[in-house]
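Why AB hydrolase-1 domain-containing protein? Reviewers of the renewal asked for a concrete example.
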Amino acid sequence: MSKDDYDTYRLGEWHLQSGTILPNAHIAYKTFGDPKAPAIVSISDNIWLIGEDKSLNPDKYFVIIPALFGNGQSTSPSNTKLATAFPKVSFYDNVRAQHKLVTEHLGIHHLHCVLGWSMGAGQTFQWITQYPDFMDLAVPFCGSARTSLHNQVFLEGVKSALLAAKGIPSAGSKEGGVTGEGVHEKRVWTEEEKMVGLKAFGRGYAGWGFSQAFYREKLHEKHYGYRDLESFMVGFWEGWATSKGTSEYQIRMLFSALG
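Here is what the prediction returned.
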């Protein structure tokens, strides 16, 4: 979803799976199509699938895109007073909030489909577990029901790149913070630290976000129109990474690690 083009639904005091409470919680969402059409919940960054000539045709379906807690639009470190002490939020907590949005706010009591990519795929599996009779179809793609050790290693790498800009070792970090003698994890990020850390995060992600074949065939030039690899790293990967806050990425990595 774009920065400001979305609606919100107030959840109030949201009791989390961990036993803590997310105060004054809200979930951000965007819809496409006629609410009377068969409804589809499309989780996490799938707007590219929506269009008259695409799989999620708003002329045929009512498409609902909910935002994750911690993504910068739903309740997140950047829009609450919880910037340095954001509670542990799980896929279970997100899916329960999405179900409440769909049923109590949008008045829908059965879905045609739930689908999701990457972290959205993990939540699609969670939907199947929590509400198995609520949808006709479930389509998780390019994701897993649990985060593998190999994926956790990848997350540790990009997390290290992000935290290094603040002078914080990734070892011992958890739940968006870092513990250890002499470590000041709760100090506010400076703007310079944010930019350095987020750009490093984006460059670290670049080798995992697209395949070897993508780069070998120079699709960054042929498909995206960049003149060379460096301009692609700056324009695409650094641009993508700096579109979110540092705390939002830490929370998203925590979600993935807990998946």
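Strands lie at 7-15, 21-32, 39-43, 62-66, 111-117, 135-141, 173-174, 177-178. This is the kind of structural detail the renewal will allow us to pursue systematically.
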